[in-house]
Amino acid sequence: MKFTQSCLAGLSLAISTLARPAELLGAAGSKASNRDVASIGYATMNGGTSGGKGGSVVNVASLAELEKACAGAAPAIIMVTGKISTPGKIRVGSNKSIIGKDSKAELSGVGLFIRNSKNVIVRNLRIHHVLAKNGDAIGIQGSTNVWIDHVEVSSDKEHGKDYYDGLIDVTHGSDFVTISHCYIHDHYKASLVGHSNKNEAEDTGHLRVTYAHNYWENINSRAPSLRFGTAHIFDSIFMDVVDGINVRKGAQALVENDYFSGSNKPLYTVDSTGFAVHKGNDFGSNTTATIPIGTLKAVPYKYILKELENMKDELPDIVGNTLSF
């Protein structure tokens, strides 16, 4: 996995609550269990997120096998054993864990569509170049308790901004979602929370999303873009993200201990007012947050802020599909 090295220079923040990064995230290539449950953020709430734990383990190596394994609501642990490159859009049912067996697990042009589902885990996959006709790389609509962890999502910026859709979009009143340890890169419109200014009735009181320990790179906008909901964004790096965290339509964000380099607008609101509490961030030279102070001063789950001095060396080896099972 390649990263721009300049983005990691000068990472140093004083943080009151500290933990060693290796204790939180694990080293690259570390062994994980396909029965792991969500351990961070909003996905730990509302009864937690266990995915297919307790169900059968199914190995898949083709689009047809993946589609069959993801159907229905019966618990299943779905292990992707290699590269699947037949383009398509996979509907994901409730109580599923979709896991890449190792770093070779890849969905090329294949989008995952989590709609009206509950209790879904997606881990350790590389998902890329999903054409707009096949939806987002990962689309979450009307779903609750979803954990996206150690996933690499990308496309390219060589085509128009509508050639691809989103990388990880959370819409239609989805709730209790965590996006953690992901490498999100090379894309125009990366991650949308709340799809329309006209969807207030469905979204208000929902769209609670945690973004933790993520690496955003070479993104034009929506890193993320928030409407109506609540987002906790912490311990992440934003490198060459033109327009970063956009909070609007009354959304509330808590933004902590994030590092920005090469961003024109790291944290802002536009068109309709959103709010944020921000602390311990490095927004880069000659930039600052341009947003009213919000009311989200705390979140209802436990978390530990990392000691960012060490992350300049450790983060590139931690995010994305770096686990093995």
Automatic annotation (TrEMBL):
Places the protein is found: Secreted
Record-linked InterPro entries: Pec_lyase, Pectin_lyas_fold, Pectin_lyase_fold/virulence, PEL
Reactions it catalyzes: Eliminative cleavage of (1->4)-alpha-D-galacturonan to give oligosaccharides with 4-deoxy-alpha-D-galact-4-enuronosyl groups at their non-reducing ends
Gene Ontology molecular function: any one: pectate lyase activity
Top-level taxon: Eukaryota
Top EC class of this enzyme: lyase
Protein name, entry field: pectate lyase
